[in-house]
Design goal:
Number of domains of chain B: 2
Shape of chain A: globular
CATH topology of one domain in chain A: Aldehyde Oxidoreductase, domain 4
Helix content of chain B: 25-40%
Order of helices and strands of chain B: EEHEEEHHHH
Number of helices of chain A: 20
Number of strands of chain B: 5
CATH superfamily of one domain in chain A: Aldehyde oxidase/xanthine dehydrogenase, molybdopterin binding domain
CATH class of one domain in chain A: Alpha Beta
Largest interface: A-B, 101 and 78 residues
Largest sheet of chain A: 7 strands, mixed
Shape of chain B: globular
Structural class of chain B: alpha+beta
Strand order of the largest sheet of chain A: 3-5-1-12-9-10-11
Structural class of chain A: alpha+beta
CATH architecture of one domain in chain A: 2-Layer Sandwich
Helix content of chain A: 10-25%
Radius of gyration of chain A: 29 Å
Radius of gyration of chain B: 19 Å
Strand content of chain B: 5-15%
CATH class of the largest domain in chain B: Alpha Beta
Strand content of chain A: 15-25%
Strand order of the largest sheet of chain B: 2-1-5-3-4
Oligomer: heterodimer
CATH architecture of the largest domain in chain B: Roll
Number of strands of chain A: 30
Amino acid sequence: MSKDYVQQAGMNKDVRVDGKRVAGKMRFNPPGSGGSRPEMAERDMEFIPELEGGNEAQPAGGHFQDKYRTGTTVGKRTPLVDANAKVTGQAWYGDDVRLANELIGRIIRSPYHYARVKSVDTSEAEKLPGVIAVSTGVDAPSQFGVLPVTKDEHAMAVEKVRHVGDLVACVAAVDEETARHAARLIKIEYEVLDPVHDPKKGLLDVDEPIHWRGPYHIGSTNVQKRVFQEFGDRGSLEDTTQAFHNGKWKFMGVNHGFTEPHAVVAHWDPNGRLQLYTPQQVPHYAHRALSTVLEVPMHQINVIRTFVGGGFGGKSDPFPHEMCAAILARKAGRPVRITFDREEVFWVNRGRHPSHIEVKINANDEAKISGFEIDALIDGGGFASFGHVTSYYNGVLATAPYELGSFHYTGARVWTNKPASGAMRGHGAVNTRCAIEVGLDDIAEKLKVDPVDLRLANLLPPHSKTITGFRITSNGMRQALERVREGSNWSEKFRKLPLGKGIGIGCGFFISGSGLPIHWDPHNFPHATVHLQIDMDGGVTVHTGAADIGQGSSTAVAQVVAEVLALPLEMVHVRSHESDTSPVDLGSYSSRVTFMNANAAIGAALEIREKLLNAAGEILDVEPEKLVLNDRRIYVKRDPTIGVSYLDALHKSQEDIGALIASGAYRTPPMGGIHKGAAAGLAPAYSFSAYVAEVDVDVDTGQIKCTNVWAAHDCGKALNPLAVEGQIIGSCHMGLGQVLSEQMVYGRTGHLQNPNFLEYKIPSVHEMPNVTPIIIESCDPEGPFGAKEAGEGPLLPILPAVVNAVYDAIGVRINDLPLTPDKVWAAISKKMKKLKLDDPRDLPVPTLDFSELQKKLEERSNEHRLRDSRRQRMEDTGPYLNGVLFGLDPTLPPEEQDETWKISVKPDSSQLDNLGLAGSAWTKKEQRHMAGGK
Amino acid sequence: MVGEDFVSMIPAAQSEIWYGEVNGQTKEVIAKSNSILLDVLRDKTGCLGVKRGCDMGTCGCCTVMIDGEPRLSCLTMAHDVSGSKITTVEGLSDGSHLAPIQQCFADHGGSQCGFCTPGFLIASQALLEKNPNPTEQQIACAIEGNLCRCTGYQQIVQSIQAAAAIHRGDAEAVASNNAAHADPHPSGPEI
């Protein structure tokens, strides 16, 4: 390279000192910067782990990848790599893709809740000038669905429409006005059927179930999925119970409320390949479904993920409108763009399930949780979506972080004639978590102990197994609880605040990546694959399918690559938009991206690192093991003067191949039980969180204002604390919406009454409390540099924390979310009537007078703190199975040492009569077991 | 969209010439007389940074500055503001130099998915131009019409505070620890 090389004329004269970025004037000197200079920046010891000789504290012990840390970016507050595109308006979302000669598509939707489509007459619409293509259900008869076991959706109605807003037909025209006009000209004849709106009625036999599953259909009900799980010893519960809680909850449906409405652009290129632009969290599932519906092989489809304007689970299903756009574009021979208005977003929904949940908790005389019983009836709406999984998650994700004496779950998901529910941030775990955390608060009150100590004395330790067999690795629950207790000044406030002011606690537990890929056996294909490519000038291109939906996955992947190779972040470019260039990836759901993709990226970067070190070793005649990387140089660890530049080593190792290419993959270790449903909720790691919320309740109006939140989340290791804090605060916002104001309101006739942001009340800046994010780093042994998820788990604790704080403030428990002022005021009035009070300001507030148990709990949690710390630091590696707290041997499975320990996934005939609401689905037989089934 | 056929009561729109000074450039386009400003900006003037989130003035994603005032372009008839000076997110930066408000949103996590960001940027820029020393309450009032589903607003408020400090001259635009600024060889000798 020439000495006098100047990347851009006069660049050094014009360097701004105010930190503003200047395009084309980044201060890299020659391409492949760092090239041949001997000097380099010092290693940033603040970000090198202490066990490797740096200053970064490691309270939870070391990690096997610590030796690859270079102090470059991991752990530093890093702006998102695509932030500049977003703040300049250059980020391209679904509707920003404008192709030449485009047409505008509109979708014709059902006005009926449930009806048979008798005929669709499109002739009038086709005659309208400017209409280029019209399509109906006959054009795409194949079914699809996000889960292979429940493919129950069509691009457009084939036989029936199943909710208001279900797709019937679509048109493509030269402009939106013509398309809307044409949509009104399509004549559809319906035969209206009896709709089901109440999920409780979904459990009953009907003449015309919403879907028909043949021999596997449960009776002739609308039950889509039923679950039964019984673990542990429930026989002696009645005798040993000291405190008992029974909470019956109602949760309204919640929508994701992402700001970008769905939009899609489809274009069949001149070679006959489909180019589909869509803001998808999970482009690969859309890719598969498109292939099925369009009857085109997957390699003839290129799914291009645009920037995604918020996902939260709502953009993870393959959607019928994506098929419609492709079908219209194929018919028209021109690109077709379909953009939803906000109302349509609510018709597509896939939000959190409206649920009826009953929770029973038994605690024994030592304040151990001897029984956990959950019954969850969830309203799935018109389609299955992720419902199969949601049905399990409502129960099984409640089995930690506490050690349980027994666990019993019955769940059912029913179809109703509403827009389909699906996955939403905290998938399936949120509602049950709220119910059980509030239940524990009640138990603590009955036992007269501090609810924080009750939790601290019943935690599962790190490296243990839950009652259903989930393998917990790192576990920062204890630190999270202790930190929020300290931060919020809990002991000075709890049960000591005046009427109208309250403080409450809640905990959370969530998966960090789903243990099993939905579509394949993990032994055949890995969960995630990342390709790296380094060309001659030293820039690194990362090819990954991880969908950045704003959470910063591209940043995380770029960070770990930059960290391993000790390169500035600007030299790493993430390419993740196109399915043509990115390896297959399962996308952004179940909080899997950081854990799986970053791990795969580290694997690929290590391969490159090894090649570079070998090359440098050859040049320097030094053994590669003695070399380290830092700031675009490779040198001998003991003597930094002996070294070569990154570029020299790169060119040496590129001899004969031009570019260095590496591939890394991540697959989960084998884990989990063998019972039916054991795979649901399995994850390579779990995140833990504890929140304390403070609220003000206006007792005259029932208005609740959440004022302060201390939010501790165990994310293993914060690769980017800025992003982790953003996720924690954002989760608080979304959870607060659900607990205080957000609900999808269905009227008496089952019609959705608030499909817009005026009446669907998302908290504004004025409703936000002051959130203090606290990051707990428990260093997960398998996570990338110890990291776990931070995107979904932090949402869980805010709901129960607020509900518990409201109780602390006014002494009333309300089991019906959201806690809108009318409900709160009704509960206050009821209590006033009961106590014969005239003024709500005379309401008594709950008080706390510790019982003897409190001391015992404190002692037990002190003992456990030692146990946990030893296990966390791997000083104690003995097995620990749930049940040890109840006197079982940690080394043997409980069922082998306790005859009464049950593991059952099907009710026996004696249980059928006293199952809960959702459990009653088990009283029906599947068609194949019925005589003369339909 | 959903429901029985209906006959539009609105008389057919006429095409007319709409002009305005968009981000410092005079634009003259043909638009329907009943067009909303959002559609004209997105479809006719190429300002795709103006986002459509709800069509009814509830989300704030479409906020643009009209003669210095932040307005919702989805509730503004293009005809009514013909001839105005309009600033969209594309007009905030000075060439490729990011404005302080943009830089601070990027550096302080004020933008996650980024869809609401253009609206927030315009609303906060309008605030800072009038009041470079806003209290937290004033900031909250300035962005109360904007919905953000990702950040929970806290980092947005922090971003605006940081930008306010630059506007006041209390702080220089602080270089983030993004390596572009932190390059250790600003003018090192080449060998």
